[in-house]
Amino acid sequence: MFSVNHPDVKHIKILVAGQVGAGKSSFINSVNNAFRGRMTSEAIVDQSSGKSFTKNLKSHRVRGADGDLPFVLTDIMGLQPEVLEGSQPEDIIKAIYGHVKDEYKFNEEEPLSHTSEDYVSDPLLSDQAFCLVYIVEANTIEGIPQVIIMTKVDEACPLVKNDLKKVYTSKKIKEKMQLCSEMIGVPMNCIFPVKNYHDEIDTDDDVDVLILKAFDQIVNFANDRLMNAASN
C-alpha cells in the first residue's frame, strides 16, 4: 500500500504538461481508466481544433474502484510550439511551486502576475507539484521535462500497433526513446512509452500495464522529491 512521505501532505500533486494534441488530457483519463477498470472522462479531450482545449489549471483526483487515491494530476493549458519561449513556461514554473490557484484561466499573452488574485504568494507544501510529467508524441520531441510520457506508440510502430506487448522490444520505439533522451537530456529510465485510451469503449490489460508502469514510477519520483523538500 502506497503512503505519502509527509504528515502534512495528503495528496501528491503531479503537474502534467505538453504540447497541444500530444495526449495530455487523454493520459489523465487513461490513468483513471486503469485504476477504475472502466472508461472515464475526468479531463475533457479535444484533438480536432489544433488549439489547447484546456484553458484553466485543473486538478483531477485519481480514483480507484474503492475510492480516492492519494494522487492529484494537475492539467494545464497545452503549449503552442510557436510560443515555447513566451509566457506559458513561466506559468508552468509558478504552478510547480504552488503559486497558481486551481481553476486559474491562462492568458496566452502574458504570465500570471504576483499581484493577481490568482497568485498564491505563500503556498503550502501541499500546494506544490512534486513531479513534472511532460507528454510528447512518439514522433515529435520537444520540451524540458523531468519525466516524459511518450504517447501514440501504436501510431509510430506497426509492430506495436499489432501487439502492444512488444513496445519494449520494438527497435523503432527504442530509437525514438534514445533520440528523445539525447535531445532533451532525460535518461532512458525516465521515458515511458504508452498508448492512451482514445476511441475504445472498454479497458484493455495491455494498455493498462503501460499506463500503470509509468504512473508507478512517476509517483515514486514525486514521493522522493516530497521527502527531500520536507527535510530541507
Automatic annotation (TrEMBL):
PANTHER family attached to this UniProt entry: INTERFERON-INDUCED PROTEIN 44, INTERFERON-INDUCED PROTEIN 44-RELATED
UniProt record, GO biological process: immune response
Any one GO molecular-function label of the UniProt entry: GTP binding
SUPFAM superfamilies hit by this protein: P-loop containing nucleoside triphosphate hydrolases
Lineage of the species this protein comes from: Eukaryota, Metazoa, Chordata, Craniata, Vertebrata
Transmembrane segments: none
Residues in G domain copies: 13-89
InterPro entries reported for this sequence: GTP-bd (IPR006073), P-loop_NTPase (IPR027417)
Coiled coil: none
UniProt protein name: Interferon-induced 44-like protein
